[in-house]
Design goal:
Order of helices and strands: HHHHEHHHEHEEEEE
Oligomer: single chain
Largest sheet: 7 strands, mixed
Number of helices: 8
Structural class: alpha+beta
CATH class of the largest domain: Mainly Beta
CATH superfamily of the largest domain: FAS1 domain
Shape: globular
Strand content: 15-25%
Length: 162
């Protein structure tokens, strides 16, 4: 057996094992909206707020939902003490959080075609896709994070209902 044949003989089982591992990973079930956000690591404040507001089970439910998810940096842009005050005012917190959720799965290509979207909270979000995508005054910084029960679009500003 020459070197090339030996190298191929040794490589093929390793490649097959890798291919099998990849298939297993690709077959794994996608995480839900909440678990996906928590795993990302940049939505700790959102996760804490969802827990405090009692919305975790809803967003782990079957959906589908579209969530415009503000990052920790977006929450940090709020005036000092706002997050702490909201965690004590659960009705207001629920209103704000559900204002970030649209029933159904609306991917970026569909969002860009809309001028508004009805939220679970009841009020509409304004959508402007003329230069990037703006949801009210928030900019979508990352779109189409697909989950088992919906889709997440990351935004840079917390949306406050009128």
């Amino acid at each position: 057996m020459n070197r090339i044949t030996l190298a191929l003989a040794l490589s093929v089982p390793a490649l097959l094992a890798h291919a099998t591992d990849t298939k297993v990973v690709n077959r794994e079930k996608k995480a839900d909206l909440v678990d996906t956000a928590v795993a990302a690591g940049s939505f700790k404040t959102l996760a804490t707020a969802l827990q405090a507001a009692g919305l975790v089970d809803t967003l782990k439910g079957p959906g589908p939902f579209t969530v415009f998810a503000p990052t920790d940096a977006a929450f940090a842009k709020l005036p000092a003490g706002t997050v702490e005050a909201l965690l004590k005012d659960l009705p207001k917190l629920r209103s704000i959080l559900t204002y970030h959720v649209v029933a159904g799965r609306v991917d970026a290509s569909d969002v860009a075609k809309l001028s508004k979207a009805a939220t679970v909270q009841g009020q509409d979000l304004r959508i402007d896709a003329t230069e990037g995508v703006k949801i009210n005054k928030a900019t979508v910084t990352k779109a189409d994070i697909v989950t088992s029960n919906g889709i997440i679009h990351v935004i840079d500003t917390v949306l406050i209902p009128e």
